Amino acid sequence: MKSMDGLESVLSRGVDSIYPSRNLLLEKLRRQKLRIYNGIDPTSTSIHLGHSIILRKLAQFQKLGHKIILVFGDFTGMVGDPSGKDTQRKPLTRRQVLENSSSYKSLVGKILDFKKNPPEIFFNSNWWDKVKAPEILEMLSHFTVQQLLERDMFQERIEKRRPIAASEFLYPILQGYDSVAIDTDVEIGGTDQTFNMLVGREFMKIKEKKEKFVITIPLLEGTDGRKMSKSFGNTIDLNEEPNQMFGKIMSIKDDLIVKYFTLLTDVGLDEISKIEESLKNSTINPRDAKINLALEIVKIYHGESEAKNAQNEFERVFQEGGVPETKKVGSKTGKIKALDLIMNLEMASSRSEAKRLIEQGGVKSNGEKIVNPNQLIDVEIGTIVQIGKLKAVEIMRS
Amino acid sequence: MKSMDGLESVLSRGVDSIYPSRNLLLEKLRRQKLRIYNGIDPTSTSIHLGHSIILRKLAQFQKLGHKIILVFGDFTGMVGDPSGKDTQRKPLTRRQVLENSSSYKSLVGKILDFKKNPPEIFFNSNWWDKVKAPEILEMLSHFTVQQLLERDMFQERIEKRRPIAASEFLYPILQGYDSVAIDTDVEIGGTDQTFNMLVGREFMKIKEKKEKFVITIPLLEGTDGRKMSKSFGNTIDLNEEPNQMFGKIMSIKDDLIVKYFTLLTDVGLDEISKIEESLKNSTINPRDAKINLALEIVKIYHGESEAKNAQNEFERVFQEGGVPETKKVGSKTGKIKALDLIMNLEMASSRSEAKRLIEQGGVKSNGEKIVNPNQLIDVEIGTIVQIGKLKAVEIMRS
User: Fold this and answer.
1) What would the CATH number be for the domain defined by B240-319?
2) Does A158 contact B at CB distance below 8 Å?
């Protein structure tokens, strides 16, 4: 590891694969400044730690003087990327996409530098709104149905007899054309984007006789061990309060500690190796490794002192058997369905997260466990609703 | 049969199927004047008798006061309809399509009335050139990949590992939108168009909440018994000279006589039944039935007296053992490949037709049969090249 220079390390830490090859890209990056791009379909208002890995990788290239390009998919977001989705995505409206984009942009600013060598930002409706039918058909003529069907995920949908909309079927070609439109040298994305990005590579060869490089980044597991995804309600979002972010990181499975350190912090690889070793030998308590991890991550998004405060609050609650700080929140009173109550009190970011929290037994009303999302709760002034050991609210008049 | 009125006869003679049902369409046609449409991608400069069946059906509706609409696919022709094609069609350029369209239009005038209740003619680039990416994707979102893949022909291509271009895959949806753009009540096409036309029916329901009727017309066999198609070189074209048209009709297989009478002439069904009976009982010579048939068809496109002349010429050559009238045609002399010679002398309309004629043993040079399209022929001034019993040319200096 010691022998790697900065660039080699950027191309290996937290990188899954590089197409056509790591060495060719390394050579090219040494010779000239490249245009390096990531496309984001803003499907929600938040960015989670899974997304942050790609943004952090972009920030490393940015520091080395390369030009970062972000494409917000306000057009492709309306089509719906089928990547990793075993059912059809509900297409977004342009209005939703634009709202989400503006929220994304401010979160991206926590990772990328918008002053020095700032990223170029595009909305892909800029070109797509102008593309007409004859051009689209010309684009499509370069690809075959068989090529597109090769995709695992489509095969899976066909087997499970789940519909593939003709529009989402073409998604890889649409994403591919974005590469051509911004004339990029490199595209970075999650491993679930590999197919789409390679179609874009093909497109660049056909249209511009140019070799676009593709860098794939591993996917991150969320708090429940499954892929981190808004639809699983298991994300840790960049805009979460320090206490909440800290607590969620403490709740990840122990075998993810090393992966989180590697992908989400600036801790050196040597030190991470030592932590890994210590965990194996049980010379360190996983809880202590996680506290260290949570501190490192929260620091990045909220600064050192907020991270410290979060650690103190966490330790107070857990080690001293305390109860979480209780916020007073206005609410209607009377009989309210548990799921609706959690949403009204804004204690979960989505109905699916709220449902999961209840079903995992983490939600209590006046100390009594709620087991069924449809259960009717007697809500009165003074009722205390608690989620896990980190969040609690006391009902006041709304 | 006697009990059918004109409309019933129009909906049964030479009709394969009607969607959703013959009775519903009959009712509707009795109540009001409808917009009845056929789409043609002009893939060549000529129209053959196979196409004429649809045009003749349209003419029948036109006479009853319904509005006929023809859509020339100058946009869809560039995409290439995969119907009935087991390999990918070579897309046409817009220039080719426009040239072909103008030739088509003049041929259509032989069947449809352009003075009284004239057809509306559209080029589908009119709307397609304006359709933009977001609209196309919206259109596609109503259909699934599985629906489109159900098509026999695509399944066949997948089995044979022949490519299906993503563009031609979408052809049915493109054709479907044409129905919406012209707001048609009925679409007529060959049975090989059934899938495309039913997608258009679906489209009309989704977009306009309207029930579009679909009428399918049987496909016609050509001079070699296979489906009549330019790519087989077995067509009888509407713009062929009377002698040639007459001779080609005489060359069809005997078991097609009744089908040709039914689909291509105005001879009454009663009389056709009698001919069918007589052929079965061998109380009529198939050659005589065919002469009758050829007369009827040539009459439609060239008038009665030209048809009679063609019959006389045919009988002179065949019955009196005569040789066909010999035209003098200029040509290079020397050793020339048989296939090239036939093409240079314009004795076949395509290389595939020329090849077929040679391989079927119909081509002679100075009385000697040519058996191989690649055979070198000694061409001199005075050499006589003969195809079948109907065409002969004598070489003169070019």
Assistant:
1) 1.10.240.10
2) yes
Chain A CB contacts of B159 under 8 Å are none
CB contact under 8 A, B144 and A165: yes
Q: Do A145 and B133 touch (CB under 8 A)?
A: no
**Angle of CA points A176, A180, A185, to nearest 5°:** 100
Q: What's the length of chain B?
A: 398
Give residue limits of the domains in chain A.
Answer: 6-217, 240-319, 326-397
Q: Are B182 and B127 in contact (CB under 8 A)?
A: no
Q: What is the pLDDT of residues B289-298, one digit of tens each?
A: 999 999 999 9
Which residues lie below 8 Å from residue B125, measured CB to CB, with a gap of 6+?
Answer: A134, B74, B75, B94
CATH class as words, domain A6-217: alpha beta
- Helix, strand, coil in percent for chain A, rounding step 5: 50, 15, 35
Fold of A326-397: 3.10.290
CB contact under 8 A, B137 and A173: no
A141 contacts in B (CB within 8 Å)? Answer: 79, 91, 165-168
CA A10/CA A306 separation, integer angstroms: 29
Q: Is B330 helix (H, G, I), strand (E, B) or coil?
A: strand
Each residue's pLDDT tens digit, A162-219:
889 898 899 999 999 999 999 999 999 999 999 999 999 999 999 999 999 999 999 9
Q: What is the DSSP string of B268-312?
A: -HHHHHHHHHHHHTT-S-HHHHHHHHHHHHHHHHH-HHHHHHHHH
pLDDT band at B242 (very low <50, low <70, confident <90, very high): very high
Q: Does B128 touch chain A (CB under 8 A)?
A: yes
Whether the CB of B163 is below 8 Å from some CB of chain A: the reply is: yes
In terms of CA atoms, which chain A residue is nearest residue B136? A133
Which residue reads 């290389």 in tokens?
A: B351
Cross-chain residue pair B141–A75, CB shorter than 8 Å? no
Chain A CB contacts of B137 under 8 Å are: 78-79, 167, 170, 174
B326-397 has the same fold as B6-217: no
CB atoms within 10 A of CB A266: 9
The verdict on A138 touching B (C-beta cutoff 8 Å) is yes
Partner-chain contact A164 B145, CB within 8 Å:
yes
User: B24-47 burial, b if ≥16 CB within 10 A, otherwise e?
Assistant: ebbeebeeeebbbbbbbbbbbbbb
